[in-house]
Design brief:
This protein has 476 residues and is an alpha/beta fold. It is 23% helix and 29% strand. The structure holds flavin-adenine dinucleotide.
């Protein structure tokens, strides 16, 4: 028999988007909220560091969120969580079906927040799946096909949840060598975690350079750091097959390793949204209040596509803090306090072997592929004045439109990248996040003030440096 319950708001998904939606709804005075979660919640961004144990000595368990000791979460969370999967959703009838350990529950709701997130994407090469795998967790996309993680071969790894982190942690304790496929933030952070644990790691990248979120000229600095630390990187590497002792590339090269870790990107999980008939494109289509094509259903997080503030294109940012911000917007609207998501663009900031990198908006390469005419301006920076021995070299790069296209105007800054040693570029990237997502031009750089403080930076004003470079380039 199907149990029937009713709640004012049902949140689907217990990731950062779902949890913050739940929390914000409670804070805004909506008391009757239920959240459906199908896996242990984690502070997901810290999973690689849990595996590495240098920054998180407690290992992966320290990164798992214990709902019985809620930190910041409302104390009602345990009784409000329904364990299981939402397998069917009927917005017109305002009912969702949850399949849990105890059977099916039909949950009636007034409003629903869909936060199903994204899943690791693995290229569909031979040897990734096994007849009888032992891996636990939710699912992955193997090419275009959703497969249960239980079907992954024992030597194949991904990193998205607590089980994945525990498996990698065990791998690091028991084995010596790993191939990490993919050199984005997650690939590099996972590689460093395994290096920290004493494993020998080789990186494989299908593209001509590492870190697709940056252009080749900036990513070269990351490649140099990897080379200095003797971390082998194979670029333009296409996998032909995976086998228990390693991989074979399409050029016939065989690389041996105890494990193959896929960090080849993620894809939004649109299965429920599509089955429900919600409008989808690359992700679930929402307005700036986070409402989907069904007025009583809101959607937030990695499964949602948003409008890029710089260009007006639909983008999939796949960023945790953005999922949380979207969740706040959805919750506020549901609670009767109208709110819209401010302009945004995509971003990524990380660190590998002491070298910090950040990228905001469009790379020169991605902008050209999308049909924009752009120029790249690189400004070398030194982190301290030349007479200070602790100063390190770095570089900033602006991607600037040189011709109009749709709403993009000449001189508009479409992207920013930074690579620097030692110091975190976090606040700098945040500043350029505003500049890019609000459509500012290089001339607007003059309106951004620069603070010099010898203990923190060098006296040269890089905003003026970039502005002068832009004026020379554009003949102003
Ligand atoms: C290793 C790693 C490092 C990262 N580092 C950073 C970082 O430094 N900074 C940053 O901002 N972002 C980072 N991210 C990205 C960030 O984790 C994601 O953007 C964020 O998790 C998205 O939150 P979400 O709630 O939309 O989706 P998810 O975290 O994917 O959560 C969705 C949840 O919903 C569940 N679900 C799906 N369908 C259903 C259903 N039908 N019923 C019930 N439950 C369902 C899923 O299983 C999952 O548990 C990182 C991601 C990873 C994997």
């Amino acid at each position: 028999m199907v149990e029937k319950i009713k709640t004012d708001v049902l949140v689907v998904g217990g990731g950062p988007g779902g949890r913050v939606a739940y929390m914000a709804l409670k804070q805004f005075g909506v008391t009757d909220v239920k959240m459906v979660a199908n896996e242990e919640p984690t502070v997901i961004c810290s999973l690689p560091y849990g595996v590495g144990r240098r920054l998180v000595p407690g290992g992966p368990e320290a990164v798992v969120v214990d709902l019985s000791k809620p930190h910041r979460l409302p104390p009602t969370i345990l009784q409000d969580v329904l364990q299981g999967n939402v397998t069917a959703l009927d917005p017109a009838a305002r009912e969702a079906v949850v399949e849990g350990p105890g059977g099916q529950t039909a949950v009636g709701f007034d409003r629903l927040v869909l936060a199903p997130g994204a899943l690791p994407w693995i290229p569909a090469v031979e040897g990734v799946l096994a007849e009888t795998g032992t891996v636990q967790g939710t699912g992955v996309f193997y090419g275009d096909e959703w497969v249960d993680k239980g079907r992954l071969a024992d030597h194949v790894y991904v990193l998205r949840g607590a089980w994945d982190a525990r498996r990698l942690d065990r791998l690091a304790s028991e084995k010596k060598t790993a191939l990490v496929v993919g050199t984005g933030a997650i690939g590099l952070e996972t590689a460093e975690a395994l290096l920290d644990r004493g494993m020998a790691v080789t990186l494989l990248e299908a593209l001509p350079h590492v870190v697709a979120a940056m252009d080749g000229d900036m990513a070269a600095r990351v490649e140099q750091r990897l080379a200095e630390r003797n971390v082998p990187v194979r670029k333009d590497a296409r996998l032909a097959r995976v086998f228990p002792g390693g991989v074979e590339l399409s050029d016939g090269t065989v690389l041996e390793a105890d494990a193959v870790v896929f960090a080849t990107g993620v894809r939004p999980d649109l299965r429920l949204a599509k089955a429900t008939g919600l409008e989808t494109g690359r992700g679930i289509v929402v307005d700036r209040q986070m409402r989907t094509s069904a007025p009583e259903v809101y959607a937030v997080g990695d499964a949602v596509q948003v409008v890029d503030g710089a260009t007006g294109e639909s983008i999939l940012p796949l960023i945790g803090t953005l999922a949380m911000r979207q969740a706040m917007v959805a919750a506020s609207n549901i609670a009767g306090r109208p709110m819209e998501l401010p302009p945004l663009t995509a971003w990524g900031v990380s660190e590998i072997l002491g070298l910090h990198w950040g990228s905001v908006g469009w790379t020169e390469e991605a902008a050209r592929r999308a049909g924009y005419s752009v120029a790249g301006l690189i400004q070398p920076v030194r982190t301290r004045d030349p007479f200070m021995p602790e100063g390190k070299d770095g570089a900033w790069k602006l991607v600037v439109a040189t011709a109009p296209k749709d709403r993009v105007k000449p001189g508009q800054i479409l992207g920013f990248q930074v690579v620097q040693d030692g110091d975190s570029p976090l606040f700098l990237a945040e500043r350029f996040l505003d500049i890019v997502s609000r459509g500012e031009t290089v001339m607007d750089l003059f309106g951004h003030y620069f603070i010099h403080s010898p203990a923190h930076n060098a006296v040269d004003d890089p905003y003026l440096g970039l502005l002068s470079q832009a004026m020379r380039t554009f003949g102003r």
